[in-house]
């Protein structure tokens, strides 16, 4: 699928007035497949989600890192579904330990792009 076609479907399928019956269509299946199978489309899609949360795209090493850190900010409490943490005080990143607390294992490289993370 081309990015321009995807953008048209994005507007259609992210509308607050979306009729749920559209979820059962081939067009919706193709839309979802494009997110998972096309890196350009996936990157564009994640940037749209980041922009909705009013987080600056490019603040972290890659779009996926920014997206998953944005996902974690959706709640003021510790998010049990978070896959990555950023500690603002110590400026370090980590993988959460799902032990009911705020523990995480520090990492030095991004799990998605492999870049060395700044301290």
Brief description of this entry?
The chain is an alpha+beta fold. The protein is built from four helices and three strands. Pfam families: DUF6980.
Low-confidence stretches: none
Continuous helix count: 4
Helix content: 25-40%
Strand-residue proportion: 5-15%
User: What's the shape?
Assistant: elongated
Q: Total strand count, please? A: 3
Secondary-structure element string: HHHHEEE
Q: Could you say how many structural domains there are in total?
A: 2
N-end to C-end Cα span: 39 Å
Kindly state the mean pLDDT as a whole number? Answer: 87
Please outline the major beta sheet: 3 strands, antiparallel
Rg? 17 Å
Q: In order across it, which strands form the biggest sheet?
A: 1-2-3
> What structural category arises from helix and sheet content?
alpha+beta
Protein name: DUF6980 domain-containing protein
Organism: Ohtaekwangia koreensis
InterPro entries: DUF6980
Domain DUF6980: 59-118
Explain this structure.
This protein is an alpha+beta fold and 119 residues long. β2 and β3 form a beta hairpin. It has a three-stranded antiparallel sheet, with no helix packed on it. The termini are far apart. α1 packs across α2, α2 crosses α3 and α3 packs parallel to α4. The model has no long low-confidence stretch (mean pLDDT 87). The radius of gyration is 17 Å and the shape is elongated.
Give descriptors for this structure.
119 residues, alpha+beta, 2 domains, three-stranded antiparallel beta sheet, 4 helices, 39% helix, elongated
